[in-house]
Design the sequence.
């Protein structure tokens, strides 16, 4: 694989908070067009890894390259969209429509005081359509469900036409019955729009038939490969430190306590 085909390249990455080592010697590559799920137990270093990729934490040891550029020299952050755990903490009284929230995603691309043009309007409509929310165009975002709100935030990230979209536990606050359709939407964004997706999730079984690659992180990178290889694993007990059975295609996973 050529260097310019890699969206993310991580080499021998380690990170610690005070005396606690949270990431240890991580090597990870994400090719263009991939849909990668990062899974792991609480405290495994998933959020720290995302913050390092986004430049929110300073590297301590190792290297990260984005689009073939060392992260220290990388300036084209508009090529990367990010969606965090918004739905759980969003102020439902915030007086803004779906259209207005998505339009705010153009600020980084246009500048704070530049007026939107006609073509920007079409970009906004296209982003909203891509997440299936066209009927809710003028609806106040506070009136939407948690899953719909997350779709709005994804549209907001998409409106600036990023090549990489990073999502950190996006189904927090999403009703269980809507999780599957949410992941289906992400799969369509990957396949139909060609956006490279990096997803941090706890939904092990649910996403295994949607993603192209899986990375299992628990301070070390215990597994990194294609989703088909991941599905062949019948237990993640050693990885999680307790009994976890992987069930695919029925959208559940069962832990040692039966939940």
Sequence:
């Amino acid at each position: 694989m050529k260097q310019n085909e890699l969206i993310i390249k991580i080499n021998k990455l380690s990170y610690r908070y005070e005396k606690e080592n949270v990431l240890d010697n991580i090597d990870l590559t994400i090719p263009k067009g991939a849909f990668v799920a990062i899974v792991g137990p609480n405290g495994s270093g998933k959020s720290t890894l995302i913050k390092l990729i986004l430049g929110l934490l300073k590297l301590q040891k190792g290297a990260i390259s984005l689009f073939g550029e060392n992260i220290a020299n990388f300036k084209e952050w508009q090529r990367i969209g990010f969606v965090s755990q918004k739905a759980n903490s969003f102020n439902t009284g915030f007086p803004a429509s779906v259209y207005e929230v998505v339009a705010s995603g153009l600020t980084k691309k246009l500048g704070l005081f530049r007026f939107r043009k006609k073509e920007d309007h079409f970009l906004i409509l296209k982003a909203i359509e891509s997440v299936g929310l066209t009927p809710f165009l003028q609806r106040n975002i506070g009136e939407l469900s948690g899953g719909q709100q997350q779709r709005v935030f994804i549209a907001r990230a998409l409106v600036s036409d990023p090549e990489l979209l990073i999502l950190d536990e996006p189904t927090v606050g999403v009703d269980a019955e809507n999780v599957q359709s949410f992941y289906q939407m992400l799969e369509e964004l990957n396949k139909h729009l060609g956006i490279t997706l990096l997803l941090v999730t706890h939904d092990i079984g649910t996403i295994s038939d949607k993603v192209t690659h899986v990375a299992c992180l628990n301070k070390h990178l215990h597994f990194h490969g294609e989703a088909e290889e991941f599905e062949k694993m019948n237990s993640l007990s050693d990885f999680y430190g307790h009994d976890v059975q992987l069930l695919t295609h029925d959208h559940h996973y069962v832990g040692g306590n039966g939940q």
Remarks:
- The first helix runs from residue 46 to 53.
